[in-house]
Input
Amino acid sequence: MKPKPRKFIPGLLFWAVLVASNLPTAHAGLPDDTTVYWNGSGKRVHIEKCRRLTDDPAELAKLTKMTLAEAKVKELPPCSRCPGSELNEERLAETSDAASQKAKAFPPETKVYWDGGKRGHIASCRRFPEDKEVNSTYGKMTAAGAMLCSRCPGSQLNVERKARSSNKSKDYGKYGRKGAKARAAWLNYPEKEYDPKTKAYCDALWMRVHEESCPMVLLKDKKRVITLEQADKEGWRIGETGQSGRERCCFHGYRRNHPEKEFNQDTPGLTQIMKSGRLKWHQAGCHRFIIKPEHVPMTMGEAMAKTDMNPYVCVHCIERGPNLTTVDLKKLRQRPTAPEFTPPAGWTPEPFSPDKRPSEKEIDILIQETLARDYSILEAPFENPLASLEEFMGMRFFFPVDNWLTFYQAYRATGDKRILESLRVSARHYRDLCNNYPDVAQLKARDPEGMAFMYSMAVSARLTLKLARKHPEQVNEQEIAEAASFLKAIVSTLKPVCEGDDNLDSEMGIPKELADDFRRRAFNRALNGIGTIAMATAALEDLQVVVKTSALQPQIDRYRKCVREYFKNWKSEGCLYTEADGKTYFYYPYIAGGDTKRQNGLLLGGADDQGHYSHSMQGVMLVHDATPELGADDEFMTAVANAVYHNSYTKNGSIQCPSADKIQPLSRKKFGAPIDRFYMFEAFRDGVIEGQCSKLSPSEKVSVNSEYSSRLKTLHAQYLKALRENPGLIHL
Ligand SMILES: [Zn+2]
Ligand SMILES: [Zn+2]
Ligand SMILES: [Zn+2]
Ligand SMILES: [Zn+2]
Ligand SMILES: [Zn+2]
Output
């Protein structure tokens, strides 16, 4: 329906209030004989002046005409846009732009209900008691020092309240800058009227409802269904999705009538003690918070009472609002936990050399440190299991990938089988998720960013099967069967995304949706997923050899094509540039389609920053180790190493080749070094680690490179260097 220009003028409200306040009943903003129109099915009627009522005489003739009194008998109130209606006043009281309004000067004879306390009400107030009638006047009430309440339309307190709430609803300031911006953008959807009885599907984790057709409704048949009207009244978030609720997935154009539910003193949550010593209160399920058994459940009131710990509420939790279930702490405590690391007495960590193998004792300590890392099962076990799946869907797998990457590199650098076992813990968990909830897993894996949840499955299967091929005596049947089960789960999860010939992209020859995703997703976000596919591909090839079959070849061929096309597109969006000294450099824009141009073979503008570039390279490493021929061969890795090395001696936050830097140095973010994620490129160019540390003093350098992560990455660079000599090498 096309919105009509607004016929209502604010002054009319006060006229209506005045009239209403002089009438004997509480809810009589409009005379009972007012003509109203009803469409025969909705829960609301409209008066002639309502902008929601059709202009078209033919349409109007189809509607049922009656008096307001008749409509009241049928329990059909005029809608919230009908000027002068009760719902309209209520709506205005909640949302109108208070800045342009002043408190009304109520005539002393205005009829009010006043029980002798601090506050009274005019007849149009929604707090006017149902069972009471006006019993006093504004003059008498104020003479006794009482005021009209903050919901009495036009009262002093009401105007003040509106000023506060309209600021809030205008810029959503309490939701932070990004949160406010996202929510303000929703108002660009033209307002749309929904039948209040529209089905609203309730999430299990967050207090959110969705439309029946919303793609974010998981396990629909298990969901509670309420009406849109009830959802609005109870304060559910309507059509919100994503970690912080910044994406609008459904109910586009719906404007809520009631405020969103907020936390109160009794809201249950969990607390964590921050490094600063402060107490931070979260809702279980917050993406900024991986629940551990040591976190203490507390209500918000209890947490805020711990004033000696300077308590505060997580801003992401404020933005997202209340959850609906609690963590099953018993189940959480049953999950496998990593052993604790105790540094040996008298041991002081020291930097590893890029080319000399550390002592066995040092390597053993590194292994112990690695084994102490958590397995990175991201979603918590909630009392309502559906909530765990919803949390899983909302999670971005950047964080676990960090620990899985650590396990992977540590295994390559040491060959310690317990580390491989650490990878399998999360792999089993996510395999079971794929098998028990295939729809959910497939939805998560519909783009390369989401596919990264299968990282530990792919990588552990690859390591196990590579070992089984080369050293059959080191791997037992059960381990092979388990690796096969990981791969089976990956294949069935990727089926709707990577297989099928119905809708192939004409250029890439892979499913169109995936091809389009390759072209628009920020590279750093996609590459861990691409690396996961590459690892799964290599593992499937190993499995074919180990169990002597060729049944998996169709999947292998498709996955290979996906990885190859990804790299082809990435390299064409980016730039492989050979400088006068004969060295080639690789750099690329943060995202495809940005503000870039080409000049004599150089890419100018948009170059990715060091941090994101380094994240992209973690995925590249997997492709290099699994399927180098698909785009991450030695030559390419060397071009990356050259670019990283060059950048480390500049002050530029973005990585480019020297010629591009000469024309226009870029800093998408501020320059920062060292980044130990780059240390592995020491294998492709001597001096990369030294370059990363070139801005540090000698003592700073020792301190940074003594850290666990630097030692691991340095040793891993040794593995990669040895791998170049011996392509069959499984670990150092
Ligand atoms: Zn109306
Ligand atoms: Zn009131
Ligand atoms: Zn939705
Ligand atoms: Zn209402
Ligand atoms: Zn939080």
